[in-house]
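Structure tokens please, single chain.
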Amino acid sequence: MDQGFFTNSELSGILESARTGRTGAGAAASSKPEPFQFQSAGQLSPAQVTKLSEAHANFSTQLARSLSTLLGSECKVTAAGAEQIGYGDLAGQLPAGAMFGTLHVAFPETSVFLHADMATVLPMIDLMLGGAGAAASAARPLTEIEQEVFKPVVDLLTAELKAAWAPLVESSPRYEYRGAAEDIFPAAQRVLALKFEIAAGEWSGTWNLILPALLSNALVRKLELHTAPAESAKSGGNEGRLRERLLEGSFRVELFLPPTPVSVRMLAHLKAGQVVVFKRRSSDPIDVNLEGVHLFLASPVSCGARRGAQIKKVFPMEPRVKKEKA
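Here you go.
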């Protein structure tokens, strides 16, 4: 057994527990059972919810363009966040609207639904029938004809959503009109509601893309797998730019003779024009320091009108370790 995992006292305690069938007081204290929260199982963290919501920013922009073209009127679509909630609670707080099936996802096998605020559905139908798209006076269920008129809007959203999710999950269009929000999912089932604000002219409202927890978890896992290489590449790019900036920097370089003892008598009698003779030979290389670090031995040379140093020896750079004060 690798002695690096346990100390001798710990090993003795484990063997004693095995022989006696009893555990120490410390083990009993650390094994206190805690209740498991089934409702929180598989729940996304706030950061993951935010990440999934932000991943649909381009979807919002593209959907706004496509809707504007289809309706013949400028339409704005803005991502309004996401919420994890029990489906029964969500259905109870949704405004009057219509529920539509949009996508069937192959794996995990499930469906995505759209709840469209009736305050946006009726004006859109009016625009598609050649009207001015005035805001509806009162919410009401759609007639069979209105369901067919509105179907291209749902088909368009489905196509944009399928394209946005193509790198993540395999899906296929599945149009289905459901007049009410009830009975789509069990009331206790947790879902993720991706919210979008839809506005055009005088009217506006909220659309909710409703994803079962199984699907939202799968999307987050795929997003994290897809973004990890991109973040790594970004980090590598930053490292490369930092390296280039450092290579363009400048440092103080000194070329000088090492300390050489000279008598005080000699210094006291020095006069202008006299030569001080050192013990080192002129052929010996001298020190080159970079910001105070001794890195090279070199010989002084002339480079045209400038002075230079011909490197004779390179010393390895050793990390400087600061000694901690006792």
